[in-house]
Amino acid sequence: MAFIPKNDPNRIKVNRVVFTFLLMCGLIVFLHILSIPAPEAVLLTALVLVCGVLGYQSGIVCAVLEVMYFLHYYSDGHDFISFTSENLLKVIVILVCVAVNIAFIKELRENWEFTRKKLTGANRNLRQYNQVLREETMVDELTGMYNRAALRLHYPRYTKKNLIVTFVDLDDFKKINDIYGHKVGDKALQEVSRALQVYFKNTNCYRYGGDEFLLIRTDDNWQNYEMEILRLRAHIATIVIAD
Known about the structure:
This protein is mainly alpha-helical. The protein has helices at residues 9-34, 39-54, 56-74, 85-138, 148-158, 173-180, 182-199, 222-237; strands spanning 164-169, 203-209, 212-217. The chain has 2 domains: 9-121, no CATH class; 148-237, 2-Layer Sandwich (Alpha-Beta Plaits), CATH 3.30.70. It contains 8 helices and 3 strands. Strand 2 (203-209) and strand 3 (212-217) form a beta hairpin.
């Protein structure tokens, strides 16, 4: 037997239709027992509420039951066929009211659904855009590393944990900019940033500012960390920056 999720749209519609049928049958029996002299006011109000709240399909079920009751209520001998001229006019007016209410409420509900879906899509796009903006503000544009804003956001992750924190800067970086220009200096920062992210495991790397970097290792394995530092130094010694 196939499993039908509780939130399946078709199942929800069926449940609403069944609920409407039982509700309207109960309401009609209640009105009949009390001999309400003008039941159309109550039933037409119920039609508007059912169609607006439970949907068009439930509104159709409600309308069919009401029409059947009105034909029974106003017909001579309750035979559904014979009517006096006065009662026939009443039935015609009621049928028109039922049809107009169904059409009007359906149009309102469709407009509401369209607006709701549009707003939902807009909210989803806005959340995605905000997420992109948040990520962009956390990443240094030049190096692609985390920046200070990201460090402030990540700080709660590091509290009450054993960490290895290292502050790194490039020797004589100002001379590189002065002699070879900022373009070469930017390339040097990019090469070092890539090396930091490749050679250090379990480590979050931040560009703290200028040629300064902050490394936060999320464990306290000094032996592995020292080996990573040695490999990084060896790699940086081989880097050649082409202008």
